[in-house]
C-alpha cells in the first residue's frame, strides 16, 4: 500500500484542504480502463495557497510538518499490520468496495452462478444505506439489525412486492459473508455478527400438478396456444420460464435419434445438456427452425391471467404459476422411481440438497396415499 498527500484548493482560491490518499492497487476492467482501489482520509488541516505574510508562511510550514508526521504514523501502522499487529486504519475500508471485490470473484470461479444474487443484494443494500462512503467503522450490531429488518419487512422486488423470506435470508447471508471475510482479513478486530441473529428462510409450498391434471390441461383449450405449449414443455423438461423464453433453435441438436438441448441456464449461467422426449419435441413449432423456438411468448399480465383461467377451466383449483411446470417435472420423476441425484442433474441444480425439497413433497404424498386406504371395518 502507498500513501500520498493530496491538496485540494477551494473555489475561492484562498484555502487548501489536506487529505491522505491510500492506494491499495489497481485493476483493469472489461473495457481496458485502469481502476484504482483507493480511499481518502480528511485531516481537518489546511494551507494558504499563496502565503503573503510571515504568519501564513509559518502556518504552512508547521502544518506540512504535522501532515508528514501523520503520514509516517499511518505508514508505520500499515507496516505493523502486515506483521500481525492491528492496523488502526483498516476499519476505514469502504464496505461497498470490499463487497464488490467479493462479488467480482463470483464471475470467474465455480460460484459464478451466485454473481446475480450478490448484485441484487447490493442493490437492496444501497436502497437501505444510500451513502456509498460506508466504512467498516460504521458496521455495528445496530446497523446489521437494521439491514436484517429491512430485508425482512421493507425490501421489494421490481414489481413492488416484498421479497420472500428465502430471498431475504439469502441476501443477509451475503452481508454476513462479507463481514466474516473482513474479520478474517483483519479489517475489523471484533465480529459484530456474534450478537446478530440471522434470517430463517421459510420454505414456501411448491405447487405441482399430478399427471392426471396435466392430461386435463392437454385436453383443455387455451386462448394462447404458445402459452399452452410452453407450459406443457416445462412440465416435460423442467425448464424455467427464462430458459424456455430464450430457447433458440441453435441450442437444439439431434444425437443418436434423440433431441437434445445444449444451453446456458439464464439463472445460474451454467452449461446444461438436456435430452427431451418426442412428446416434448412435438410441442415445438418446426415450421421455421431458426431464431427463438417459442416465438411470441412473452411475460405479461395477459399471459398470467390466461394461465390461471386455463388451469381453472381444466378443473384445477391450485394457484398455478409457470414455475409449477418445473415442480411438476421434478415430482413426476421422483414419484416414478427416478433417484434424487438424477433429478438434480436434470434440473441443473449444483447441489443435491437444493433438490431435497421435492423429496420432502414425495414423502407427504406417500403419507396422504396411505390414509386413502378404505375402511375395512375394524
Describe the structure concisely.
This protein has 378 residues and is of the alpha+beta class. The protein has helices at 54-82, 95-105, 115-128, 141-153, 165-184, 211-219, 225-237, 241-246, 278-281, 301-313, 324-335, 340-347, 352-370; strands at residues 2-9, 16-28, 34-47, 252-255, 258-264, 271-276. The protein has 3 domains: 2-82, no CATH class; 92-195, DNA polymerase, domain 1, CATH 1.10.150.130; 211-370, hpI Integrase, Chain A (Orthogonal Bundle).
Structural summary, described in words:
The protein has 378 residues and is of the alpha+beta class. It has three domains: 2-82, no CATH class; 92-195, Tyrosine recombinase, N-terminal domain (DNA polymerase, domain 1, Orthogonal Bundle), CATH 1.10.150.130; 211-370, Intergrase catalytic core (hpI Integrase, Chain A). The protein is 45% helix and 14% strand. The chain has helices at 54-82, 95-105, 115-128, 141-153, 165-184, 211-219, 225-237, 241-246, 278-281, 301-313, 324-335, 340-347, 352-370, and strands spanning 2-9, 16-28, 34-47, 252-255, 258-264, 271-276. The strands form two sheets. A three-stranded antiparallel sheet has the order 1-2-3. A three-stranded antiparallel sheet has the order 4-5-6. Strand 2 (16-28) and strand 3 (34-47) form a beta hairpin. Helix 2 (95-105) packs antiparallel against helix 3 (115-128). The longest helix is centred in the first third of the chain and has 29 residues, at 54-82. It is elongated and about 105 Å long. The model is unreliable at 82-88 (pLDDT under 50).
Amino acid at each position: 500500500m502507498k500513501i500520498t498527500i493530496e491538496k485540494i484548493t477551494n473555489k475561492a482560491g484562498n484555502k487548501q484542504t489536506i487529505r491522505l490518499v491510500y492506494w491499495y492497487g489497481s485493476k483493469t476492467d472489461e473495457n481496458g480502463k485502469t481502476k484504482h482501489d483507493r480511499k481518502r482520509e480528511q485531516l481537518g488541516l489546511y494551507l494558504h495557497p499563496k502565503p503573503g505574510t510571515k504568519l501564513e508562511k509559518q502556518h504552512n510550514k508547521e502544518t506540512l510538518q504535522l501532515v508528514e508526521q501523520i503520514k509516517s504514523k499511518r505508514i508505520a501502522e500499515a507496516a505493523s499490520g502486515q506483521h500481525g499487529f492491528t492496523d488502526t486504519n483498516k476499519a476505514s475500508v469502504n464496505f461497498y468496495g470490499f463487497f464488490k471485490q467479493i462479488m467480482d470473484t463470483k464471475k470467474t470461479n465455480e460460484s459464478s452462478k451466485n454473481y446475480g444474487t450478490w448484485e441484487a443484494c447490493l442493490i437492496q443494500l444501497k436502497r437501505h444505506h444510500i451513502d456509498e462512503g460506508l466504512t467498516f467503522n460504521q458496521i455495528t450490531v445496530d446497523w446489521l439489525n437494521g439491514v436484517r429488518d429491512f430485508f425482512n419487512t421493507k425490501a421489494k422486488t421490481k414489481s413492488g412486492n416484498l421479497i420472500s423470506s428465502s430471498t431475504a435470508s439469502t441476501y443477509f447471508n451475503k452481508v454476513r459473508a462479507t463481514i466474516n471475510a473482513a474479520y478474517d482479513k483483519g479489517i475489523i478486530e471484533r465480529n459484530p455478527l456474534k450478537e446478530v441473529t440471522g434470517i430463517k428462510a421459510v420454505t414456501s409450498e411448491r405447487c405441482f400438478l399430478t399427471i392426471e391434471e396435466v392430461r386435463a390441461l392437454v385436453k383443455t383449450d387455451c386462448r394462447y396456444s404458445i402459452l399452452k405449449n410452453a407450459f406443457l414443455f416445462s412440465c416435460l423438461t423442467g425448464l424455467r420460464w427464462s430458459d424456455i423464453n430464450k430457447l433458440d433453435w441453435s441450442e437444439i441438436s439431434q444425437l443418436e435419434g434423440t433431441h437434445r438441448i445444449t444451453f446456458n441456464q439464464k439463472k445460474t449461467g451454467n452449461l446444461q445438456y438436456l435430452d427431451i422426449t418426442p412428446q416434448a419435441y412435438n410441442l415445438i413449432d418446426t415450421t421455421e427452425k431458426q431464431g427463438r423456438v417459442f416465438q411470441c411468448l412473452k411475460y405479461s399480465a395477459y399471459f398470467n391471467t390466461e394461465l390461471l383461467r386455463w388451469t381453472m377451466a381444466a378443473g384445477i383449483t391450485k394457484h398455478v404459476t409457470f414455475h409449477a411446470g418445473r415442480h411438476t417435472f421434478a415430482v413426476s420423476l421422483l414419484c416414478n422411481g427416478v433417484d434424487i441425484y438424477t433429478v438434480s442433474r436434470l434440473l441443473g441444480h449444483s447441489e443435491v440438497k437444493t433438490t431435497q425439497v421435492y423429496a420432502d413433497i414425495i414423502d407427504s404424498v406417500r403419507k396422504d396415499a396411505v390414509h386413502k386406504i378404505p375402511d375395512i371395518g375394524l
